[in-house]
Amino acid sequence: MAAPTPSDADRDQPPDRAADRRRWRALSVGLVAAFMTLLDVSIVNVAIPSIRAALQASPSDLQWVLSGYALTFGLVLVPAGRFGDARGRRGAFVVGLIGFTAASAAAGLAQSATWLIVARLIQGVAAGVVNPQVTGLIQELFRGPERGRPFGVLGATIGVSTAIGPLLGGGLIAVAGPHEGWRWVFYVNVPVGIVAAILGWRLIPTRHGAVPGWRTLDPVGVVLLGVGVVVLLLPLVQEQQWRGPVKWLLLPVAAAVLFAFVRWERHHRRAGGAPVFELSLFRLRSYSLGAVIALLYFAGFTAIFFVFTLYLQTGLGYSALLAGLAVTPFALGSAVGAVVGGRLVNRYGRPLVAAGLLLVALGLAGTIVALHFVPGHDAALATTAPLLLAGFGSGLVITPNQTLTLSEVPVGNAGSAAGMLQTGQRIGSAIGIAGVGSVFFARLAATGFEWSIAFRDALAVALVFMLVALAAAVTDVLVAHRSRG
Q: How confident is the model at residue 46 (pLDDT cuts 50, 70, 90)?
């Protein structure tokens, strides 16, 4: 089914207005899907106590419920983006969204921990298929400076979905009750997913001229990249469950597999094939440096909510709803910052990203200071202002950095480039949760379960990730300044 013809209302508008309305309708469907899939990264955190009680889940089971989604999400991002580049984005988007909706329903119906884990793994795969199509759609539908606004809305979607997940999850559990409320954390995706899939098929335009044949999809490259990403992520997402140093032997194995992937991609390109990822994109400073900043930023960004939720619910005894409310200032600041960043990115460029990282660092430092003076049950109130500042800075980072990183990427590589960028974000999230989580749990044990001290020290590690990302952004600003000089 082709994209719909313009409505009577569209025909009454000037041609450019009608086309603009059709573009934004298509993108709106993509944004709804992106919100759902990214929301499921964080919404489950507050449901973990209820899931443990309802399904008699072990700590290892719970770890897989959380990390299995991120693992399979990161696994398919680049191949799915490449598929959208080669065959068109509408089909991949709709199929991925249907799979995500079905897996969400299966997760809500789970009668055992194993059932829930399998559903979460499938959810992650489907989410990884959907997300690069959204970014690729922006690259395809918008040109040059006009991409700033849609990327701004996408950045707000990313920031708000990740930050508001605990609040929405807590609200659902409060309404439906602790025994069944966790199921609605998954059921909420079903009606939205069905409507979004129907609208996606109707509103997202088809792309003619896609090249048939498996050769265009580079199956060898897909397998090598997939194995490399899984082997890299496994010891990170299982850091707390796999005791001992043996797990870290997987990292050199991952390096060897990813090296083989790079060699294969170069060979495949020389042989006239279309690689799963165009390695020459890393020669673009905007792309390579933006990918590094994204990896480092998400290492600190995601880890904050991981340890904050544990601190509030387990350490201070907050309910799921109150724990969600505690991170709302960050979500609000992030939404506002993303919209502002989308409007200003074309004017200020990378210095805007550096300014955002500085604000995030100041907000985290302020949070650490606030917890030093108010370490007890009023911690959530004391951290409101610094988290609002950090959230606003976050909005100035995610949106402009994504816009700048993809600004020079050809449309034909938009999906795979976005997929690789998001894969880096997932790897960064796993690194951050492993590193920050290790410090958090180690300090808990060393201090006799002094939760405030453990949380402050964990925040300090997240702050280090932000400062390293800030150094990378400042380096890019200085290099660009010297080049102009």
A: confident
